[in-house]
């Protein structure tokens, strides 16, 4: 029986339900870096709650929804959503399935979610970018010079990120501008003898916030699951963002009149204690919370997921190598997310996935590879790019393997 509007006894109007599904589709497409399979599952669940069956085909930047023989298209620019919005949307969909509110109420709530401001103000988001950058940076180079460079560079990237939020068109050039500024600073510091080793290991962590790790991982997962159009679109987008970031180093070399050989990527002796890298991931988790507007009550679960994913990947890498270690880390991440998010009141899966995806993401490898190529070291550059491709496949297959082994009720929306 079709649900009735509370207090009226009348069935929900079909046109209103159709419009709710289309509006929700547009919102989910704009927040679809968690994958298209999940989006289709959510749309179907909402429609069924109001007594309707739909057909939905979701691409990377559009959803085609057929309701009652009428086909509509909802388009949007995919982006990483605020994590408190994802949590609120997850709660809304669960509430609709349990006890559908009037359609007008549900549509109003969807509109509120789209317009909901970030939980944290600009200053805290810039601080989050600094912590995010330092936390990841010490995993690349565990030195005090990395802490200082990441802290200063994080301010630049944080200001650019905050500016993007108020001026969306700036997002088109913010990665290039940030990369150029950061590269000028790092190359100048190298030429003046202020840093040990080459500048690449100081540049890549600072730009990590712009590396589309979520899109890379989701694209690889979609390709592995047979979603070729969506997966290829995301990977092409991710590749061009990496190219923009790499181009910043080229522009910096030209502006400084420096030699391309200044860009090199040697190993540097660690000066931080062993626990410094682990503490770095704690700072990183705080940065994720501030930058991506995570609810504070979700933070402990996200921190546990980040630390255990890192530990599993490190253990696997030590035992079997980097790509097998990434595969095992992806399996561990998926198991953790599904277990920790399962009880009522826990964070939505995507809230836990995001930080862990960044831990495993091979995007920094790709950026380092491009910058090493610019520096004239083709062998090391191509090796890093090849390793990025292998790690992408390992992440996708690790998630798919774990999901395929678990009962379907645990992995709803993860597989076709």
Task: Give the SSE layout.
Layout lengths: L13 H17 L5 H14 L4 E5 L3 E6 L2 E6 L7 H16 L4 H13 L6 H19 L3 H23 L7 H18 L8 H7 L6 H12 L3 H29 L17 H18 L7 H22 L1 H19 L8 H12 L2 H12 L3 H28 L11
Antiparallel strand pairs: 1-2, 2-3
Helix pairs in contact: 1-2, 1-4, 2-3, 3-4, 5-6, 5-8, 5-11, 6-7, 6-8, 7-8, 7-10, 8-15, 9-10, 9-16, 10-15, 11-12, 12-13, 12-14, 13-14, 13-16, 15-16
Q: What's this model, at a glance?
A:
This protein has 416 residues and is mostly helical. Helix content is 67%, strand content 4%.
Q: What oligomeric state do the depicted chains represent?
A: single chain
CA-atom Rg in angstroms? 22 Å
Topology pattern, helix = H, strand = E:
HHEEEHHHHHHHHHHHHHH
Number of strands: 3
Strand order of the largest sheet: 1-2-3
Low-confidence stretches: 1-11
């Amino acid at each position: 029986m079709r649900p009735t509007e509370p207090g009226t006894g009348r069935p929900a109007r079909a046109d209103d339900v159709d419009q709710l599904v289309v509006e929700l589709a547009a919102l989910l497409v704009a927040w679809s870096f968690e994958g298209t399979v999940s989006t289709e599952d959510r749309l179907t669940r909402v429609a069924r709650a109001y007594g309707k069956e739909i057909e939905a085909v979701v691409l990377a930047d559009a959803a085609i929804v057929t309701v009652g023989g009428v086909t509509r298209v909802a388009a949007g620019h995919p982006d990483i959503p605020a994590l408190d919005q994802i949590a609120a949307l997850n709660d809304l969909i669960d509430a609709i399935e349990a006890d559908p509110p009037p359609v007008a109420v549900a549509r109003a709530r969807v509109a509120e979610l789209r317009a909901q401001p970030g939980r944290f103000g600009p200053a805290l988001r810039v601080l989050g970018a600094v912590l995010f950058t330092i936390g990841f940076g010490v995993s690349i180079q565990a030195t005090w010079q990395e802490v200082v460079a990441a802290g200063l560079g994080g301010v630049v990237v944080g200001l650019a990120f905050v500016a993007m939020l108020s001026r969306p068109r700036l997002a088109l050039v913010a990665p290039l501008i940030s990369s150029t500024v950061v590269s000028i600073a790092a190359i100048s510091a190298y030429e003046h003898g202020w840093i040990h080793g080459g500048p690449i290991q100081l540049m890549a962590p600072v730009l990590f916030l712009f590396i589309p790790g979520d899109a890379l991982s989701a694209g690889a997962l979609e390709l592995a699951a047979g979603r070729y159009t969506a997966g290829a679109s995301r990977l092409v987008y991710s590749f061009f963002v990496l190219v923009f970031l790499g181009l910043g180093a080229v522009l910096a070399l030209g502006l400084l009149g420096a030699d391309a050989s200044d860009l090199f990527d040697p190993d540097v002796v660690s000066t931080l204690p062993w626990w410094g890298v682990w503490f770095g991931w704690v700072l990183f988790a705080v940065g994720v919370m501030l930058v991506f507007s995570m609810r504070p009550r979700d933070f402990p679960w996200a921190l546990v997921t980040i630390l255990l994913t890192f530990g599993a990947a490190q253990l696997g890498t030590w035992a079997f190598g980097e790509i097998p270690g990434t595969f095992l880390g992806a399996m561990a991440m998926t198991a953790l997310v599904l277990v920790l998010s399962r009880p009522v009141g826990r964070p939505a899966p995507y809230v836990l996935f995001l930080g862990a995806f960044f831990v495993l993401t091979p995007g920094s490898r790709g950026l380092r590879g491009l910058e090493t190529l610019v520096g004239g070291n083709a062998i090391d550059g191509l090796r890093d790019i090849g390793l990025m491709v292998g790690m992408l496949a390992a992440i996708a297959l690790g998630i798919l393997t774990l999901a395929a082994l678990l009962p379907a009720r645990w992995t709803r929306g993860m597989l076709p």
